[in-house]
Amino acid sequence: MDFLRQYLFAVQSFTRLPVRGTLAQWMDASPETMRASAAHFPGVGWLVGMAACAAFALAGLVLGDNPFAPLAAAVICIGATLLLTGSAHEAGLARTADAFGAAVAASSPGAPAADPRLGSHGVLALALAVLAKASLLAVLAAQSPTAVLAALLAAHVLSRFWPLLLRPTLPWLGAVGAAGDGTLADRIEPRGLGIAAAWSIFAVAIAWFAEGPAFAILALAAGGLALLWMRWLFARHLQGFTASGLGATQQACEAATYLGAAIGLRVG
Question: Which residues, 6 or more positions from 141, have their beta carbon under 8 angstroms from its beta carbon?
Answer without folding.
Answer: 56, 60, 70, 73, 74, 147, 148
